[in-house]
C-alpha cells in the first residue's frame, strides 16, 4: 500500500517544548489507524502536527508524496486534511445546517449526504450549535469535517463523554465512511478496546515515541502488553 501520510523523523511541539521526538510513521492511503497511549504522551500533538498547529523543528510531514511540513493550516485543509478536534468547536450561534454549510467544499459531502450519515442532525437542522447535546455536537463535528472532503481524517477522542448508544451511532458512521470513501483515518481514543476493535492497525505512543506499531488484534490478545503500554486492566477496573 502506498504511504499516504508520512512522518519522517519528526520532532515537534509547542514553542520550546518538544513532544514528538524524532518520530517516523507511515500510514497507507485508505488505512485506518488507532493511535493510543496514556495521558500526555503526544497523541493530540501528532494529530495537530499533521494539521499544522504545532511547531515542527525537525524532519518532514508528507501527504500523498507532497511535503506539507511548512504549509499553513488552511492550505492543508484545502489539500484534504480534516480534523475532528477534541473540543468539537461547533459555532454556538449558527444552526446545524449553517455549521455544515460554512465547511462545504467541492468534492466533500453535501448537507444531504451528512444528514443521511447522521439522521439526528436532519431533525436538529434548525437548532443552534449551543442547543445540541454532546452526542449531536460530535455528529456535527464529524459531519462538518466530511463536508470539507478530507483525504485524511484525524479524529481526536470522538467518543469522549458520549452515552453508549451514541458511541454506537458514531462508530457505525465511521465504519460507513471507511467502507464508502477511500479516506485515511487516524483515531485517537482513550477507550483502547473500542479503538482496537475499530482499526486494524494500532500505534501506541510512550513519551512522544512509538512503543508499538502493529496489528490491533494481536494487541487485544496480549493483555500483559496492553496493560504495560496503556494500562487497559486499570481502565477495565475503573
Ligand atoms: N499548547 C501547549 N503548549 C505546551 N505544551 C503543551 C500544549 N499542549 C499540550 N502540551 C503538552 O504536550 C504533551 C503532550 O500532550 P498531548 O495533548 O499531545 O497528549 P495526549 O497523548 O493527547 O494526551 P491526552 O490523552 O491527555 O489528551 C503534554 O505534556 C502536554 O502538557
TrEMBL record:
Q: What is the lineage of its organism?
A: Bacteria, Pseudomonadati, Pseudomonadota, Betaproteobacteria, Burkholderiales
Q: Which organism is it from?
A: Pusillimonas noertemannii
State the PROSITE patterns in the record: ABC_TRANSPORTER_1, ABC_TRANSPORTER_2
Q: Which InterPro entries match?
A: AAA+_ATPase, ABC_transporter-like_ATP-bd, ABC_transporter-like_CS, BCAA_Transport_ATP-bd_LivF, P-loop_NTPase
Membership in a protein family: Belongs to the ABC transporter superfamily.
Keyword field: Amino-acid transport, ATP-binding, Cell membrane, Membrane, Nucleotide-binding, Transport
Q: Which GO terms describe its molecular function?
A: ATP binding; ATP hydrolysis activity; branched-chain amino acid transmembrane transporter activity
Q: What's one Pfam family the UniProt record gives for this protein?
A: ABC_tran
Tell me the leader sequence span. none
* Protein name (record): Branched-chain amino acid transport system ATP-binding protein
Task: Locate the transmembrane regions by residue number.
Answer: none
Question: GO terms for biological process?
Answer: L-amino acid transport
**UniProt-listed SMART domains:** AAA (SM00382)
Question: For the ABC transporter domain, which residue ranges apply?
Answer: 5-232
Amino acid at each position: 500500500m502506498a504511504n499516504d501520510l508520512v512522518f519522517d523523523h519528526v520532532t515537534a511541539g509547542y514553542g520550546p517544548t518538544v513532544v514528538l521526538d524524532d518520530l517516523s510513521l507511515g500510514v497507507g492511503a485508505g488505512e485506518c489507524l488507532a493511535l493510543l497511549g496514556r495521558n500526555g504522551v503526544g497523541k493530540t500533538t501528532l494529530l495537530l502536527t499533521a494539521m499544522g498547529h504545532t511547531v515542527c523543528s525537525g524532519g518532514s510531514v508528507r501527504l500523498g508524496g507532497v511535503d506539507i511540513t511548512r504549509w499553513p493550516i488552511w492550505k492543508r485543509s484545502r489539500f484534504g486534511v480534516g480534523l475532528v478536534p477534541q473540543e468539537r468547536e461547533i459555532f454556538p450561534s449558527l444552526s446545524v445546517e449553517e455549521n455544515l454549510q460554512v465547511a462545504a467544499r467541492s468534492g466533500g459531502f453535501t448537507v444531504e449526504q451528512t444528514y443521511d450519515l447522521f439522521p439526528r442532525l436532519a431533525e436538529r437542522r434548525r437548532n443552534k450549535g449551543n442547543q445540541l447535546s454532546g452526542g449531536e455536537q460530535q455528529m456535527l463535528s464529524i459531519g462538518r469535517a466530511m463536508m470539507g472532503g478530507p483525504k485524511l481524517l484525524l479524529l481526536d477522542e470522538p467518543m469522549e463523554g458520549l452515552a453508549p448508544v451514541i458511541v454506537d451511532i458514531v462508530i457505525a458512521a465511521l465504519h460507513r465512511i471507511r467502507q464508502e470513501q477511500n479516506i485515511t483515518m487516524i483515531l485517537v481514543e482513550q477507550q483502547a478496546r473500542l479503538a482496537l476493535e475499530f482499526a486494524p492497525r494500532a500505534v501506541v505512543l510512550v513519551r512522544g515515541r512509538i512503543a508499538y506499531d502493529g496489528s490491533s488484534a494481536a494487541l487485544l490478545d496480549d493483555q500483559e502488553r496492553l496493560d504495560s503500554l496503556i494500562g487497559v486492566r486499570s481502565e477495565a477496573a475503573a
